[in-house]
Design brief:
Number of domains: 1
Helix content: 10-25%
Radius of gyration: 17 Å
Number of strands: 12
Number of helices: 4
Largest sheet: 6 strands, mixed
CATH topology: tt1808, chain A
Strand order of the largest sheet: 3-6-7-8-9-10
CATH superfamily: tt1808, chain A
Distance between the termini: 58 Å
C-alpha cells in the first residue's frame, strides 16, 4: 500500500497562476473561476468595509485573493481577509503570507458552497482565525461565525434590510444590503 504524498507550497509555486490550487492537509483543491455575481459580491464587501471610513482603514488591511500559509501543508486563498494593523503594521512581500488573518470572508457560489462551509471552515477554525463571514450573494445574506473554544459559533445570519455593526468591525455600522449592490429589477 503506497502512501499518498502531501503537497506543499513548493509543489505549486511554479504552476501558472490559473492552475494554482489551494492546499488543505496536503491535498490540492482547485477552484473554479468565479462567476460575475461572486466577483461583484467580493468587490461590494470590500467597498462597504473600506467605505466605513478612517477608523477601519486605520486599523485594518482588507485584502482580496491573498495566498496565506496556515501550515506546511495548508495554503489557502480566501476571497477576502483582514489583518489588524497592530499585528501586521506594514505590507510585506512574503508569498504566501505566513500569518493567519484576523478575519476571513468567503463568497458562496454553487461550485464552492460546500467546500467553503465545511472544508475551509474547519481549516480556518484550526488555524485560530477568530472571525469567518460567509456571504451568499444569490440569497443576499451574510452569516457571521465566531471562533469560541476552537469551534465555530454562529453569531447570526443577516439579510438585506438589516443595519448593524458586526464583529470584528464593531462600531462601524452598515446596511447588509450594501454588500450586494442594487437589487435586480
Amino acid at each position: 500500500m503506497s502512501e499518498e504524498r502531501l503537497w506543499t507550497w513548493e509543489d505549486i509555486v511554479h504552476l501558472p497562476e490559473q492552475e494554482m490550487p489551494e492546499i488543505i492537509d496536503g491535498k490540492p483543491y482547485y477552484r473554479v473561476a468565479p462567476r460575475m455575481r461572486h466577483s461583484v459580491a467580493a468587490w461590494e464587501v470590500s467597498a462597504a468595509l473600506l467605505g466605513m471610513g478612517p477608523p477601519l482603514r486605520a486599523g485594518w488591511w482588507i485584502l482580496a485573493d491573498l495566498d496565506v500559509r496556515l501550515g506546511p501543508n495548508r495554503v489557502v486563498r480566501p476571497d477576502l481577509c483582514g489583518y489588524r494593523k497592530e499585528r501586521l503594521p506594514e505590507p510585506v512581500d512574503d508569498w504566501p503570507l505566513p500569518l493567519s488573518p484576523d478575519w476571513v470572508c468567503e463568497i458562496l457560489s454553487p461550485t464552492n458552497f460546500r467546500y467553503d462551509r465545511s472544508t475551509k471552515g474547519k481549516v480556518y477554525a484550526e488555524a485560530g482565525i477568530p472571525w469567518y463571514w460567509l456571504v451568499d450573494a444569490k440569497e443576499r445574506t451574510l452569516e457571521v461565525w465566531e471562533l469560541a473554544g476552537g469551534r465555530w459559533s454562529v453569531l447570526g445570519c443577516f439579510g438585506d434590510d438589516e443595519k448593524l455593526a458586526l464583529p470584528p468591525f464593531d462600531g462601524l455600522e452598515f446596511e447588509v444590503g450594501q454588500l450586494f449592490g442594487a437589487k435586480a429589477g
